[in-house]
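so i finally got all the pieces together for this one. its four components total, 464 residues if u count the protein bits. some of the lines might not be protein, just check the labels. i wanna see the whole assembly predicted at once instead of chain by chain like last time, that was a mess tbh
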Amino acid sequence: MSKTSLMREAGEEKTTSERAYRLLREDIVSGALAPGQKLKIEMLRNRYDIGSGPLREAMSRLAGDHLVQILGQRGFVVADFTVQDAREIGDLRKLVEAEALSLSIPNGDTAWEERIITTFHRLERLETGPERGVEALAEWEQLNGAFHEALVAACPSVWLLRTRAGMFKHHERFRRLSRLRTVLTRDIHGEHRALMEAALDKDVAKSQRVIRTHIEATTEAVINAIKSLGVS
Amino acid sequence: MSKTSLMREAGEEKTTSERAYRLLREDIVSGALAPGQKLKIEMLRNRYDIGSGPLREAMSRLAGDHLVQILGQRGFVVADFTVQDAREIGDLRKLVEAEALSLSIPNGDTAWEERIITTFHRLERLETGPERGVEALAEWEQLNGAFHEALVAACPSVWLLRTRAGMFKHHERFRRLSRLRTVLTRDIHGEHRALMEAALDKDVAKSQRVIRTHIEATTEAVINAIKSLGVS
DNA sequence: GTCAACAAAAATATTTATATTTTTTATTTT
DNA sequence: AAAATAAAAAATATAAATATTTTTGTTGAC
């Protein structure tokens, strides 16, 4: 067994391109690379110790995700975002996630229910546990994502789920920003509980109402955070 | 003025990467590169006379569009598609395009109306004109796209339009396939007229009904075409 | 002296060519 | 027939070359 195949087992990352994609994505979503910032090849090569080829491939993929903008003969920049973007993505997420949820609920089996309950409790433990610092933020984001994914997991449409995931991930950029700034005045935990209960009751109409309200509340929080930062 | 800047005015294409992206995309959507086909770098280099760098960047972008699949250390393949995909994309397009239309109509001004009328008539001219061969197919696709885009053009949400455009373009792969195989038994022209009239009447509810039926009919035609080809 | 136009230089992006690694295929051995 | 090995093909990554854009500095006009 070769050294590389051993390494692979850990991260399950086959190519340098993929690694570049993951690293860049994380740094953009987390804000380490600021919106509008120029992504100079030379700088990135030093930062990640990766050649320009894989880096350019990664940025090309990120351009497809609208996280990077290609300027054409003038390089790449981190995609900017505005209050308007936050609103639009929120509305779109509302439309798509409510639809996915309504298709997921009638198809949900016991495993689906258990997954919802499990992910909910993990999230609950973190939320009601002892206050922790910034390191808990990434963990919360991860568990929150897992919970929302569990809810729609029984939706049979791959394309709908794909679109939902895209919007959700985009919203992550905004969520992270807002959680850095604002105290969590919202009762997110209660919202999540209501969401879980409606889903397990197989009440499609109620689930849709709750998810829409939930996403609206998130979007509003995000918009306030952006405004307080003075970002246009 | 240099040679390259002169060339640029014509096609408005700045980099080789972009050209590779356009060429590959066209060949995949048109079916010249068949679903499931392996995209070997060497073959593509001969085909387009473009180096591996730009080709890989183009394929990375196409992977973001889900038109190409990255195998990781084993190259790229043209994304496969199934009847299931056609159905899902059709349903999603229905959801998103109806929403975009309902936001576009209340915002539509005179220019919006005129654009709809213009694009409709261009389409009408082609559809009612003398029968032509395969070369008219690409033109029809272009005009059909322009008409549908005109309808939603007044929608204020960039992200919604972006998502709609993505689904529409994906549907193109299927539309082209179906139009190659089936006689146009449907009264597409009549459907388009009904669509235009409902939009110009600013009747949101009716427009949504009509667009949904229209997309459903397209999806059904596409599915029949795929089935008759024996593609799973 | 300030501004604009221009030219040279530097920085940067892009592409091609080369080297390396990995996968696939063919062959041989057990 | 299955496993192991060797050869070929292919993909990936690096490094070098090329082309473009941006910056800087200079000149000349006002």
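The interface with chain B takes residues 14-15, 17-18, 53, 56-58, 60-61, 63-66, 72-73, 84-85, 88-89, 91-92, 95-96, 99, 157-160, 162-163 of chain A (CB under 8 Å).
Confidence is low (pLDDT under 50) at residues 1-11 of chain A.
anyway lmk what u think
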